[in-house]
């Protein structure tokens, strides 16, 4: 039985998520170095994933479950915004 190769896509992040024509569209970016080597990397559109709203919701729920597991394992830590009303109130 012959194995079929699956393509892997690498992205540094999502440049935009937008809703057009009844579909959710993710525009993935990669960061490209400044050609002169002096400036910040430039985000460049690389791939687009298009899915129906229900698929988007399912993907979001899957990502949230993974985030929760990574938080429990200590791989990620929650950010506590310092500019919230409560944080300012506590500093006074």
Notes on the structure:
This protein is an alpha+beta fold and 92 residues long. It has one domain (13-78). It has two helices and three strands. It has helices spanning 53-72, 85-91, and strands at residues 13-20, 23-32, 42-51. Strands 1-2-3 form a three-stranded antiparallel sheet. Strand 1 (13-20) and strand 2 form a beta hairpin. The protein is extended and about 45 Å long. It starts with 12 loop residues before the first strand and ends with a helix. The mean pLDDT is 88.
Compose a concise summary of this entry:
This protein has two helices and three strands, in the order E-E-E-H-H.
Q: Treating each run of at least 4 consecutive H or I residues as one helix, how many helices?
A: 2
Distance between the termini: 70 Å
Question: What is the overall shape?
Answer: extended
Residues in β-strands, percent: 25-35%
Strand element count: 3
Main beta sheet strand tally, sense and closure? 3 strands, antiparallel
Quaternary structure classification: single chain
Helix content: 25-40%
């Amino acid at each position: 039985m012959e194995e079929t190769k699956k393509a892997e896509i690498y992205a540094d992040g999502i440049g935009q998520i937008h809703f057009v024509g009844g579909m959710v569209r993710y525009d993935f970016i990669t960061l490209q170095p400044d050609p002169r080597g002096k400036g910040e990397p430039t985000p460049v559109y690389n791939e687009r994933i298009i899915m129906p709203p229900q698929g988007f919701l399912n993907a979001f729920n899957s990502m949230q479950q993974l985030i929760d597991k990574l938080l429990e394992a200590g791989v990620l830590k929650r950010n506590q915004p310092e500019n919230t009303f409560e944080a300012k109130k506590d500093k006074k």
